[in-house]
Amino acid sequence: VPPHTPVQEAPRLMQSADAGVLPVVEGTDSKRPVGVITDRDITVRVVAEGRTDARVRDAMSSHVSVAREDDDLDTVMQIMASEQVRRVPIVDERGEIVGIVAQADIVLEGKNDQRAEETIERISQPGR
After folding, report:
1. DSSP classification of residue 107
2. Whose CA is closest to 3, among 52, 61, 49, 68?
3. What kind and span of H or E run contains 89?
4. Which residues contact 33 (CB under 8 A, 6 or more apart)?
5. How far apart are alpha carbons 10 and 80 in whole angstroms?
6. What is the C-alpha separation between 37 and 13, in angstroms, rounded?
7. Is 122 within 8 Å of 84 (Cβ atoms)?
8. What span, in angstroms and rounded, lies between the C-alpha atoms of 121 and 84?
9. Which helix (H) or strand (E) holds 113?
């Protein structure tokens, strides 16, 4: 979703995709990520403040660390742990979004249960 999108559109897209996060991209012609917006972002930054005219850019998190599609799972887990995030956008060689790896993916698909458990513990540590 581009940053100029009305924020009310984001939950509709999340619902249709059965997702709690959407990548925010530069624009309709560019899939380069500039942030992410979560259902929690919308609740805390828009709904709780009673805003009715907000755009995605008003609620999104603009600091986003990405992994490349050829990175290994350990690299993705390191990003999650160091940034304390539950989801990492994945980009191709052009820097355009091709997917997202979520904490649940690590648990379900990871080969090293111990490493996955350690990553989740680090993600969940009290804020910095």
Report:
1. H
2. 61
3. strand 87-91
4. 23, 24, 25, 64, 66, 89, 91, 97
5. 23
6. 11
7. yes
8. 9
9. helix 113-123
Q: What is the mean pLDDT of residues 17-26?
A: 94
Contact 98, 69 (CB under 8 A): yes
What pLDDT shows up at residue 127? 60
At 83, list the tokens: 């940034």
- Rounded mean pLDDT of 92-118? 82
The secondary structure of residue 95, as a DSSP letter, is S
Residue 72 contacts by C-beta under 8 Å, 6 or more apart in sequence?
none
- Indicate yes or no: pTM above 0.70: yes
For 88, residues 6+ apart whose C-beta sits below 8 A from its C-beta are 65, 66, 67, 76, 79, 80, 100, 101
Token digits for 113? 């249960």
Taking the C-alpha atoms of residue 54 and residue 21, their distance in angstroms, rounded to an integer, is: 17
